[in-house]
Amino acid sequence: MRASRGFTLIELIVVMAIVALLAGIAAPRYFAAVDRAKANSMRSSLAVMRDALDKYAADKGRYPDSLDQLVQDRYLRAVPEDPLTGSAASWVLLPPPPAADLPGQVGDVRSGAAGRAPDGSLYADW
């Protein structure tokens, strides 16, 4: 009798079905984790920029006219990139609150990304 070599078609189909099932389970979890990581990175970037804006206003007695001014005066090393848009130019700059009564043009910053965060809130509201 001749010894058979290789795999049968049924064995290959079963292995491919198992691999597809595992990929179907792992892929959604992976993409959800990537989305959560981007949201956490954006929250961190917003907190750092807002802290730098507050420190700038406290030190200089005015708000900066742009985010680049925070970099020039060394309150930030660089303007962080929005992880959702992939650009440092997509930040939405908001004027200082009227109650602050300080000159300057940038009192707060928000993301220019469209869509909702994993928790259901709008990115533009952060």
TrEMBL record:
Entry's localization field: Membrane
Membrane topology (UniProt): Single-pass membrane protein
Q: Which domain of life is it from?
A: Bacteria
Keyword Membrane in record: yes
Question: Carries keyword Manganese?
Answer: no
Which controlled-vocabulary keywords does the entry list?
Answer: Membrane, Methylation, Transmembrane, Transmembrane helix
| Region (Disordered), start-end ranges | 104-126
Record InterPro entries? Bac_GSPG_pilin (IPR000983), N_methyl_site (IPR012902), Pilin-like (IPR045584)
Spans traversing the lipid bilayer: 12-32
Main localization (coarse): membrane
Which PANTHER family does this chain map to? Answer: GENERAL SECRETION PATHWAY PROTEIN G, TYPE II SECRETION SYSTEM CORE PROTEIN G
- Name recorded for this polypeptide: Prepilin-type N-terminal cleavage/methylation domain-containing protein
- What organism is listed for this UniProt entry? Pelomonas caseinilytica
